[in-house]
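Hi everyone,

Forwarding the result from last night's run.
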Amino acid sequence: MTEPTIRFPVICPQCANEALGEYSLIDVAAALVSSKPLRLRSPCHDVSWDASPAEIEQIREYLAAIDWSATRQT
């Protein structure tokens, strides 16, 4: 079984382009509940950084908008 992932938009700190990043759902959840750093990646420039407090809040808002009942696997 593969590890569940979640995709959400990230903005490259070098060029300001937005792209979808794919992250481990467990890592994202752990970062949101424990205030541990969440490492984001930008595919366009292959850079990574720790999410800022503003980015963490945007991720929370993005996750809150997801219809989780539609994502259940049977």
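The chain has two helices and four strands.

Cheers,
N.
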